[in-house]
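On clarity, I found the account of how folds are encoded harder to follow than it need be. Since the whole study asks how a given chain folds, the encoding of that fold should be made plain. For illustration, here is how one protein appears when written out as sequence plus structure tokens:
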Amino acid sequence: MTTTESTFESRARENIAASNQHAGENPVRIGIITPLNEPGDPTAGELVTRGAVLGAEYVREHGGTRGGRQIEFVLYDDQATAAEEGMAKSSAAQMTKLALVDDVVAAMGQWHLRTTPWVVDVAERYNLPIFVENGHSLITAQKRRNVFRSYFSIADRVPVMLDFAASIGMKRIGLLAADTVFGGQMADTLVEYGTQRHGMEFLRFDFPQDDTTDFREQLRAIKAFEPDLFINGAVIKTNYMIIEQAREVGLRPSTPMMVTFGFPLRSDDFWRLTGEEGVGTMWPAMRYRPSWDGLTDLAHWFIDRYVERYGTFPPDTALTHFTDVTIIAKALDAARSDSREDLLDALEAMEFETWRGPLRFERGPAHWHHNAPELQLLQYQKHGQSFDDSAIIYPPSLATAEYLPPSTPSAG
């Protein structure tokens, strides 16, 4: 199977087109603005569309919304003109089309933190409800009426990572971070939380994500620092380069490693690209796996249908966008009309059944409409483990295994 960016886009568009064939007359239109090409992450964009399409399928099989109306998607690549004018302008332009021309009632699909503020600004200008299922810590702290999230932010995951590290006596932290919005926010939050809450000492290096391929000098410096923990704060592509080069310079596998987002969940790719050096990797994740007994009937419907359609357990990116579609449909069903204003009222007023139980979007003191799932710290403890078999090592109330420290490296 080829994995070029054009193939990701073609599959995503074919998926949406097949779903839209069932939209019928007078459908409810939902916009998807997501990366389908580089320099974005088109893998994420394809997963977004998979989840959304299954959401429309669920709604269709359960009577539709507003008297039997079905879902129609309008799909835009937020990277469409990124090569010429940058990701921010590209994403804002595509969002403007969705909000102003395509008459969608809501939008979703933002993956990259660096495009999210621009897209949200446009959506707010046109009073368009938008679901943002990424880790941007500030986007719900800005208290916008039209922004909703059921995923976890950077600020949610850092305490899980560093409270665990502190609990086993880790004090010296080596940190290598990409200069993306995600990488910068993540590194800043790690250093602030670790120093203020736990008195940790950090050696931090930032690198340009787009044109850095050699990290050996920084990794050697981190090794010389003799850290208790190495945090790989890279993003797509550079994350695996750093794992390989950390092995080359002798930092790994003898030094414990955490990563800052859930790419190890794609276990087949993870083991193919890391080999034995992947053993011991830790990462924060929401409480979502096949063996969890807290999955609702809605979750089982989605998982069964996804496995039947695509042959693998659905990643959380697909899950969250499935959830968004079902929430929008439920809110529209109860709203006074199908206007954006009335949909916003319903989203704030109602409780929604989701994959993890009931969910409400409230105006909290620090964040509006941010309902994060329960988080845990996972660790691969054997080569070739699936993510469902990975160990939950923190918090203690959820742990399925003790933390596995690195083994003593063999000579040679």
